[in-house]
């Protein structure tokens, strides 16, 4: 029985995607606020942009 080769991904068509990300986090009393933004840099764009705002309260 011959051995089989396992191939992961698309070997014939390589796609490189580069994203730029920026964010800031700050504490206000017992709250931690996190704000972030991501945007693609390369011509191959999987999305337009992503924005994230989180509020966390410590117990």
Folded structure, characterized:
The protein has 59 residues and is mainly β. It has a domain at 19-57. It contains no helices and three strands. The chain starts with 18 loop residues before the first strand and ends with a strand. The model has no long low-confidence stretch (mean pLDDT 88).
How many beta-strand runs?
A: 3
Strand/helix succession = EEE
Q: Helical region count?
A: 0
How far apart, in Å, are the first and last alpha carbons?
A: 60 Å
Mean pLDDT: 88
Principal-axis shape: elongated
Largest sheet: 3 strands, antiparallel
Spatial strand sequence of the major β-sheet: 1-2-3
Produce the secondary structure layout.
Layout: E1 19-28, E2 31-40, E3 50-57
In short:
By secondary structure, this protein is mainly beta. It is built from no helices and three strands.
Which features characterize this protein?
mainly beta, 3 strands, elongated, 59 residues, 0% helix, three-stranded antiparallel sheet
